[in-house]
Design brief:
This protein is of the alpha/beta class. The radius of gyration is 17 Å and the shape is globular. It has a domain of 157 residues: P-loop containing nucleotide triphosphate hydrolases (Rossmann fold). The protein has 7 helices and 10 strands. The strands form 2 sheets. A 6-stranded mixed β-sheet has the order 6-7-8-3-9-10, with helices on both faces. Strands 2-1-4-5 form a 4-stranded antiparallel β-sheet, with helices on one face. The protein binds adenosine-5'-diphosphate (ADP) and magnesium ion. Magnesium ion binds next to α1.
Length: 226
């Protein structure tokens, strides 16, 4: 089992009250799986992805990655888990706006201590795959929404992570670009990368082998049209 979550609980403070978003949530993710998570706005999809990616801790429960307990780690150790293993496409991308495309995508590779040449080769390949090689020296703030989205995807997949988490990755893309992106995710998944994505779109979730609906603070396995 690549990722195993048992009894996960997460609450957020809302004024003086705590609101529980996830409770007694269970999820098993096998290596090579592709999973879509659907659910109403505000039900906790991004929160769950943030827990899976080690961005935030759960309040209760156990999360293990390849049998290693992640839920017990310190914030620094959790960050290390994320940087080594997880590709993350967050909902608002979190790109460095005053740097160019190359520097943004180089960051996760620098952390992994690749050589300059390896970094350059990897970046050129991923930009080519995503058909945005012409943006390589452009600053992020000069890019269109769709280009930014592809840069965020490039940065997440460039280190060939064992698991890719994507929070509504095709949200603002036109249908053709959406198909290109899903084709890329599909190819990565065929090569063994585990994929978990949040999406509202049935045509997108149909690419995934398993579909879950998040409601009542838990995940519920549904069929593709659920
Ligand atoms: N850091 C936070 N502090 C307080 N409330 C939060 C925080 N993050 C998320 N929430 C709340 O938790 C709920 C679930 O949020 P989220 O996981 O972003 O939902 P979704 O991605 O399904 O739309 C929302 O009501 C949101 O306002
Ligand atoms: Mg969200």
């Amino acid at each position: 089992m690549l990722l195993k979550l048992t009894g996960i609980k997460k609450s957020f403070k809302n004024g003086i009250l705590y609101r529980t978003i996830l409770e007694n949530l269970t999820l098993n993710i096998e290596e090579g799986e592709s999973i879509a998570i659907k659910g109403k706005s505000g039900c906790g999809k991004s929160t769950l992805l943030n827990i899976l990616g080690g961005l935030i801790p759960s309040d209760e429960g156990v999360m293990s990655f390849n049998g290693r307990k992640i839920s017990d780690l310190s914030a620094v150790e959790r960050t290390e888990y994320r940087k080594k293993n997880v590709g993350f496409i967050t909902q608002n991308f979190h790109l460095l706006n005053d740097r160019n495309v190359y520097d943004n995508i180089a960051l996760p590779l620098q952390y992994l201590k690749l050589t300059k040449k390896q970094i350059k080769n990897n970046i050129e390949k991923v930009l080519c795959d995503l058909e945005i090689e012409n943006t390589i020296r452009r600053d992020i703030r000069t890019l269109s929404g769709g280009e930014r989205q592809r840069v965020a995807i490039a940065r997440a997949i460039v280190k060939n992570p064992s698991i890719l988490l994507a929070d509504e990755p095709t949200g603002s893309l036109d249908e053709n670009t959406e198909k290109t992106i899903m084709g890329i995710f599909d190819a990565l998944n065929q090569k063994g990368m585990t994929l978990v994505m949040v999406t509202h779109d049935d045509s997108i979730s149909s690419y995934c082998k398993k579909v879950y609906q998040l409601y009542n603070k838990k995940l519920h396995h549904v069929n593709h049209m659920g």
